[in-house]
Write a structure and sequence with these properties.
The protein is α+β, with helices and mostly antiparallel strands. Helices cover 29% and strands 29% of the residues.
Length: 146
């Protein structure tokens, strides 16, 4: 794990950047979620609802990378970059697995408890901003503000 705090420039609030890397495996899911939950403590205005939302969204994103991005692979790695401000947290999940087509995922019919697409729906419902850039390295950014 690496951490760096950038001093404020011209009145800008201090932002801390933390990175960690782990094998993209469901066996590491609870460790990854625990790390994110601990990092939330450094978002000064975060409350329990904030913690629950960002960790749940991260868990769903982690699942998608492991299950869909690295399907039938055991060599996948996941890099996580966290940006911690006094009133926000941005998580970037970076992988080199199969690219996702998030535009093809339709909102689920919640009355039927669907098997597919619920994770993406939950991610969008829980955080303020979701940005996905696919390529040689896929980057899913999740931003939650207090």
């Amino acid at each position: 794990m690496n951490a760096e705090t950038k001093p404020s420039d011209a009145g800008e609030p201090t932002v801390t950047h933390v990175t960690f890397r782990l094998r993209a495996s469901l066996a590491h899911r609870s460790l990854a979620i625990g790390l994110v939950s601990t990092l939330v403590e450094h978002v000064k205005s975060a409350d329990r609802d904030f913690r629950n939302a960002i960790t749940t969204a991260f868990g769903e994103a982690f699942n998608n990378v492991v299950i869909h991005g690295y399907r039938n692979r055991t060599d996948g790695m996941l890099d996580v970059e966290a940006e911690l401000g006094s009133d926000h947290m941005t998580l970037r999940l970076i992988d080199d697995g199969v690219q996702a087509d998030l535009s093809s995922v339709t909102p689920p019919d919640l009355s039927t408890l669907p098997e597919g697409g619920l994770g993406i729906f939950m991610i969008h419902a829980l955080v303020d901003e979701v940005v996905y850039d696919s390529g040689t390295r896929n980057v899913l950014s999740l931003t939650k503000r207090t």
